[in-house]
Amino acid sequence: MKNKKNNLVKDSLIINEPFPHLAIDNFVSSSLLRAASMSFPSVDWPHWHRYGAPNSVKVGTRDRMRITTPSQMVLDYIATHFDPSAYFDNNTDVFPDLDYYAGGMHMLPSNGFLGMHIDTDIHGGNLNWKREYSVVLCASEHYDSSFDLLLHNGKNHTRVPYKFNRLMAFKCSDDSWHGVPDPITEGMSRKTLAVFFWSRDKNRTCEGKRTRSLFRHDLVLN
Question: Which of 9, 17, 183, 186 has the fewest Cβ atoms surrounding its Cβ within 10 A?
Answer without folding.
Answer: 186
